[in-house]
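Two proteins follow. First one:
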Amino acid sequence: MDLFDLMSQGREDKALDRLEGMLALYESETEAEQDEALERARAFCDLEWGSYPAGLDILARRWARRTGDGAEAAMQALRLHEEGAKPGAIIRAVRLRRLRELSRMDEREMLIARHGSVEAVLRPTEFEEIFVAAGEGCDTAAALDAAVAAAHPMPASVEAAREECLRWDARLRQMELVSDTETLPPALPPACAARRRQVEAAWGRGRPAVTIADFSARLEFWSGRGGDDCSGYGILVADFQALSKALSTRAPGQSTKDRARALKQANPEWSLARIGKELGISRQAVHKHLKASTK
């Protein structure tokens, strides 16, 4: 590299440093300042490299060449490439992040107001105390699992297991909202964590799917949190075959209207949507069947 090349490289490095300074202003407090920073950066790139995408591409390549920064440098290079392709992408991401932070703060304040204090939110609930008490004195994981399983009846169906598992997830979410973001993320008490694992296992494979609602819950598990080992396919096939057999052997002559009426009588608290989910029909169809049965 001759002297002219060195001078050219030095000039470009300074220009890229200046561009990075402009991009840093994309984190400004006000949207007006962010918009102004974007306009300045676009004008500067037009002057130096002919276009905004060209300037961002050169800056991204410089980030990609950095050694020692590893994944962080690679991610920054990707963000810069995206910004070049979609001007304003960084600012939009900043605004979305801040909006979510505000929403989180509002949710946190409402949660604390409802319970009275942060300590009250983190304190075990009555339901959790059942398992905490059961787990006292257990010195092995096997003993803890056995004590927790005996402390309270397990959900009787796949759908019920799903509901309890989501209840534990919501509890963790509450704890995360009020915890210090600078510390390790909160965790359920060991006995409660064991119970959550048990009901999650029941949701995924530990209970037979005997109704359409059960099968729907099982399908939700394997589509969202079941992992990538493909074992869910076998479980879903077995569930589907068992459910199909049960439906095919249903007493002859029992119409959908009869089944809807029977479900409503047996479960008066169920909504039309809940009955429809069980029967595999819409809530409007359930309403029509129930209305017809009262005539």
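Second one, unrelated to the first:
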Amino acid sequence: MRSRITGKISRQFKICLAALVLAVFFFTPSVCRAGNEIYVAGMPDSWPFEFYDEKEGTYQGVLPELLEEAGEAAGIGVKYIKPSEKDRRLDLAGNIQADVVWTLGLREDEIKDAGLKKGRDLIIYEEDGKEKSISLAYTKSMETADIEKLEKAFQNIDTAKIQGAYAAYAAKGDSSAGKVNWYLWIILGLVIFSACILVIFPAFFLKKRHQMELMAYRDDVTGRDNLTSWKQKFSKYIVEENRNRYAVLFLYAGIDVVSHIYGYKEAENALRLISDTCEPLIKQEKEAFTRFNEFYYVFFVEYTGIEKLKERIRNMQESVADEFKKKEKKYFLELHTGIYRMTSVDEDPLKTIQFSEVAMEYARMHVQDYALYDEYVERETISGYAMEHEAIHGLMHQEFIMYLQPMVSLNSGKICGAEALVRWQNPNRGLLRPNEFLNVMKRKQLTGKMNIEIYRQGCQFLKQEAEKGNCLRLLFNFTVENIGDEQFANHLDAIAEQYKISRKQIIVQLNQMVEMSQSDIYVKTIKQLRKFGFDVYLAGLELDRVFFNYLYCGINGIKLRQEMISEIHKPEGKVVVRSVVELCRKLNLEVLCVGVESEEQEKFLKDLGCTMVSGFRYYYPVSREVFSELEEDKQAGS
């Protein structure tokens, strides 16, 4: 009896197990990757792009063919998951039951929610007057190496071949699968369909091909000629007979600085505005211009005399500046143009750009509107390039060192702090002052890194002084490169924390810059610095709207420059300085007076109640070692 019951249970168990296996087999798509294979979730009915042919039992259409070809080129097998009646691409991809899907008919939010990664656009077509695109979307199961192989394989498929595949499917139709309307069996329908194939589709694809060719010669920011188009026009318009009548211009407008402060979107707006302004100033069919290396512009123009060419450049720069004023931009452009006059042997367009860029760099270095390329300009500019490489090397090897301009308390006469300055201990050129290298640092946008290096040295110095029992304050200079960085305040705070420095020992000095005062990043940075506990001083005082913006941000000190202090010997100067000091006192702003050189200046400032000064009357800038000796001597003397 027990044996019979056991046998019955065993048979029932086996039947249930078999049913479970069959259910898993039929209802769960298998996507275990064997070797170098990928599984694709397709659309059951999206002719002519992708559809399932029940008679053949395979997926057909433009997209499967392209994927098959790309897979063969990449050494990757392609297998389609058998479809259901509904489109289940997102379900299969979301459950990692497929490696790849086509994006046709999927919205961006659906692709994102499914955790898919889009590849490059492979087919671009027009629907209801709108341009649409199709690309592959990969699930997390897809290996990065396979993605790169597939995308590279697609790049090697000619665009015309893609369009041809599309046209071929459009011409064949899919009557056997029920994809073609029954009217195709009517003679009139056949005639209309044939007309579409013979006239409309070729015209459509020719139009799209023309659009793609235009895109290949259009700048993606300005919508005008890109460098490829510019070079083609250069070779077309400039021939041996007229080369001596052409010049290549290299325009710098400071858009790199705009991008750093206001973001790349505003920089793009500025680039488009420059293009719109320059377009009517160029002779069509003879001259051309284009955006170059992201933030610059290059032109080739005809000229009959150098003075007329210079006048034309001045007019062009004035037109650009005027347009920016009309648009009420928050910033000012820095316009410099390099000029290279072509010779009969100048055939390479890139060489002429290189020469004009050298002239532009010379114009920037010497703050000129324009400069002509010649041997002297090249020699001096190349020398500047050499120093640029030395500067990069110097930052990497700590050649930029901190010097200190001692600050004195007028109440005690003792050193109470210092302004951190910079010197370059160049192994080949010796000890260099800022006026000998700052232009180079600005051109290479290295001042921000240099300032942070000096700040780091300053915090290290403050820690060493604290270990000796000295509590000093250091003032550090920072520039646009620093303040425009959203992480600047956090960076300063982290370094101070590393050396266990009280934030009240650090004074962050800012220059009063009109364009910066309207930058949201700049305002946020100042407020964050004050929140961390840093003192923030404004260098100089200009009583205008900008000054109020700084006040609202929370600055708590003013540095009166040597230019103002030097006027104390005049009655008018005394009135101005007294008024400024009293104004600062009413606004609860600390005052640091620098450039004090005479007893008269010292006495006047002391009578006004100023407590912190610096200048040659007390000390010259010194190294860290000499500064420590000065402190010891002062303490010994007292």
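SUMMARY FIELD: Residues 390-637 form a domain with the TIM Barrel fold (CATH 3.20.20.450). The first strand starts at residue 37 and ends at 41.
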